[in-house]
Model the fold of this input.
Amino acid sequence: MAKITLDIFRFDQAVDDIPHRDKVALEIPETITVLDALEFAKAEVDGSISFRRSCRSAICGSCSMNINGVTGLACKTPCNTVLRSDGTIAIDPMPNFQPMKDLVVHMDPFWDKYTRLKPYLQPPDRDEDNPTERRVSPDDMKKLVEVANCVMCATCYALCPVVSVDPAFAGPAAIAYAYRFVEDVRDGQTKERLGQINDDYLWLCAHCYACSYCPKHVEPHDRIVDVKRRTVQESVHMNERGPRHALVVNKTIKQTGMLGETEVIQGTVGRFNIRGLLKVAPLGLRMASKGKLPPIFLRPIPKVDEVRTIFESLEVPTLK
Amino acid sequence: MIKHDVVVIGGGLAGMRAAVEAAERGADVAIVSKMHPVRSHSGAAQGGINAALGNREDDSPLNHAFDCVKGSDYLGDQDAIEAMCEDAPRQIIWLEHRGCIFSRLPDGRIAQRPFGGAGSPRTCYSADVTGLVILHTLWEQLERFKVKVYEEYFCTALCVEDGVGSGVVAYNLRNGELELVTAKAVIFATGGLGRMYAKTTNGYASTADGLGIALRAGLPLMDMEFVQFHPTSLKENGVLLSEAARGEGAYLLNADGERFMFKYAPNKGELASRDVVSRAEWTEILEGRGVEGCVLLDLRHLGREKILERLPQIRELALDATGKDAINEPIPILPGMHYAMGGIETDKNGATRIPGVYAAGETACVSVHGANRLGGNSLLETIVFGARSARHAIDHIKSNGQVRPSEKTLKSEQDRMSEMLGRSRGERAPQIRKRMNATMSKNCFIFREKTQLQQAIDDLRETREAMKSVVVMDKSKTFNTDLVGTLETQFLIDAAQCVATGALSRTESRGAQARTDYPERDDTNWLVHSLAWYTDSAPRMDYSRKVTFTKWQPEVRSY
Done:
């Protein structure tokens, strides 16, 4: 038994203007999970503490919350792994969501991101033409099983700094779910799906890897990269800045071994997009005045062939 | 007032399957659920779903049906079992066509694995997350048909007008208001009752809601004494390790390192039916051959690759709870409360005795599981009878067009709730629930006996009395889970009384009901279902419903 104090965010949207915190002192085994500790606190001390939970085995995705500032599943977090030196654990609702009551947040914006994907199989052929199952190779199915482990707990969404500044961004979970259909050989809407997820600001992802902290090992970040790659392969939205930026970065590095910043700006904004170029012109002038304007023409580095070999072995898509 | 033609209570597999069937047929359908559908405990089902696809070995629905009948210890209704097994392959293909992510054989067909009590490998699966992938597939179909979901609405009572089901009353967790939901047909799909026991594989939401509501509306619960104890749950937290582990070849070992199951089931060993395996484990433990109150589940010989490919979730669950990696060490496990064979009495179409009221899934008793359910049949039941009950509900609506909504039940529920919230002195529900959990786990467990069962009945009567002055500490109108937990406790006690009374009244041992004072199966007197009716004190038992036989007469059951 250990003395553990839960330092809990308290808020009721119906009556409170601002949240406050309650400290609940418990004597519990320190190996129990944060969820068990909350259950204990609710049963024995304060019945009004509110949180969502269901399966307590990391499969329902209900109990995602902020534990000492890091979002995760309370049922998968033993107290002794997060206990601070003063014997407290700070528990807050997930960030990037509106709190409703204590640790319970409004999830609707998160679910809306899925709805926008039309998240259901849309095969090219009719079910009636398939008297039995559609055949899928074990390897093709295995790719999907790995993503199917997602329990929609929204941990990645809460951790995503892009969501925090632009709530229109689809977020890691929905992009991983898009991947689930894009990579499904039974689905016939690959381009439409890629188009939708591009419309939902796929390319805003800053590749910060915050979402690699996934309690179910879905690795949403890798799925985002996969979906971006498929976007380029399928030539979806090639007039948008996102894919063009990625391709022109690749192109300059492959040609010269260096990032050709001037060309990247032109390639991303568009060589003939006069208005777009004029918008970035003041930045260029300021850089020039400080002597920091990157060279307009780059000379390839020595042994640039080695760089090109890397690109070719990685099968990086090229700008057409 | 909310109004729909068909209202489904519960958003798990049975509930969503019913809603999707209704939506595909163009009905005006909605789901009322205390959680978002993907949070449902169906998602925790791991091992698989049975159907005689014959993808690995020759198989037929009839073989499947016989395995169910034998597994049920001849208490299952054979017409319903045949209907389920016949429909099973169609339903699996239906799910596959909607994108369900089943694991595959090298030729691209759906893979199947062996499961307990089954004559051939007929359990379709997706690694060890089968429930989750089906749950997601059905939720996707809700999205496709834009089915309205009243999410985080807790159903508290059934409305019956002139003997016909006319809707429900539900508590909106987000604003604390009770609302009347009128419907021409109501389908209960509220899941299990595991939380009446101290240790269970079930999640926090498995609280017998539909059972308590049905009982109080005058419907009988059937075969409630038959509670399944799963052979492999974790000692630490009761969490399930799938039967798929044994299906893939895992051993059960006692303290001497002996594969003891062959003493109890010479042919099937670890893959005997669950009641047999759980009793064997408990006997080993009681006779001193356990390891710290457990036996061991040994996966080591399966090898790292197979464990990571087919059983990754259970490896991680065991690792999180015990610190032991199944790749390198055996995992201590013991039998844990898992499933209720009993439930709201229905016919094979999911219809109850109240016209317009249906039940499907774990909350229903059709009965296809009889005295013991086979692994892989619970998911199947949800899908088959979810769809079936919706079809019959729609037929019912066509012939019974109108219901007269009345505010009577809403008023009485509002009074009940405000009285409960008004009380300030007395015991809280968690304390009362603890006493129920303790007596059920001690006195109504794997092996049962008269004095213990009587003790359970007495203890439950005391908890029922205590609930009359229960205090809800949270008075808030927003997300009041203290109030919901209190209502759940009441439903659990209602159902627990039926379990204990049914167990005491049934003076035989059959399937999951093992009476040490009546160790034999008694086919002369007990080939009948138990019906438990609500009264103000203890349930009234009724044995007027006989078991339906079609092809198979009772035989000695051995594995």
